[in-house]
Amino acid sequence: MKSKILAVLRERGDYVSGQELCERFGVSRTAVWKAIGQLKKEGFSIEAVQNRGYRLVKEAEIYGKYELESHMDTRWAGHPVSFYDVLDSTNLRAKLDAEKGAPQGALVVADMQTAGRGRRGRSWNSPAGANAYFTLILKPDFAPDKASMLTLVMAIAAAVGIKETCGAEAVIKWPNDIVIGGKKVCGMLTELSVQQEYIQYVVIGAGINVGLQEFAPEIASVAACLEQECGRKVSRAMLIANIMRAFESYYELFVKTLDFTQLREVYNGLLVNCDREVRVLDPKGEYTGISKGINNTGELLVELPDGSQVEVYAGEVSVRGIYGYV
Ligand code: BTN
């Protein structure tokens, strides 16, 4: 019944009265109303107007393992995909999977997180049906001190993947926030497990604000979502697949030299605060200077008023624009 009603709404592309649906399928008004309710729960947006009937406004987004796999055209990044409707955190799940032997490139995706984690012990609000939450597992065979650069590689991939998916001008706020129109659309959290001087695994988690939503008052002035910025529906499956494609190719350039020799230009080209005055929030004391982009190991070069240059290491330090977030 549900799918028959959906087919009629799709075919008509306009209002269909409840009466017509009842007569057509020989069911009661209550049965039609219940079926419409189920379709709404599945994510279809259906308008109900008195004296006119029901109209299909928006198809439900198909988002799951098969949809993600069908868009994935990489050799290893994003294979296999594990998809969950609800997880505590994709990073936590990815770490468990990595311990149990998940290979390099395995990807954990969730529609919703109940304990999404942000940087510096903060939480990451992760409601269902709106955003992309995913974590990529890597098992590189290089020294642990190189691992922090991988987040910057993912930052390039996210900016490029977002641009490709929805055309919006996505840029990087050092080291790895993705920003559109001065507001953050994506954050990343990288975690590392080291055993006897070797990397056991690295997990890189990203949260991307995709669908239209109301942000909590404390972040509303600095947060944005892709659909607001590009003015149309964005497929989360396509978005993640595009990011995986970009990541795979930039990662392969990165491992050739294990630094940013080949990626520095593209990273700095995407850097929103390049050649701009920035405030460096160092716990040992704040200062301002002109950002000159990253060096070959991912530190931000900041030129001080006396002409000297400092290399800012991401760790505990963050950078703001002189008048606000970027
Ligand atoms: C930040 O504070 O900017 C980083 C946010 C990282 C959030 C993502 S959502 C997917 C993955 N799982 C988590 O628990 N956190 C990361």
Describe the structure.
By secondary structure, this protein is of the alpha+beta class. Helices cover 31% and strands 27% of the residues. The protein is built from nine helices and 14 strands. The protein has helices at 2-12, 18-25, 29-41, 65-71, 90-99, 149-166, 226-230, 236-257, 264-270; strands at 45-49, 53-58, 81-87, 107-113, 132-138, 171-173, 177-180, 183-195, 198-208, 277-281, 287-294, 300-303, 309-312, 318-321. A seven-stranded mixed sheet has the order 3-4-5-9-8-7-6, with helices on both faces. Strands 13-12-11-10-14 form a five-stranded antiparallel sheet. A hairpin with a 3-residue loop joins strand 1 (45-49) and strand 2 (53-58). The radius of gyration is 23 Å and the shape is elongated. The termini are far apart. Bound molecules: biotin. Biotin (BTN) is lined by residues 89-91, 113, 116-119, 122, 124, 133, 135, 187-189, 205-207.
Number of strands: 14
Shape, principal axes of CA atoms: elongated
What is the overall number of helices?
A: 9
Largest sheet report: 7 strands, mixed
Q: Level of helix content?
A: 25-40%
Q: How far apart are the termini?
A: 52 Å
Strand content: 25-35%
Structural class: alpha+beta
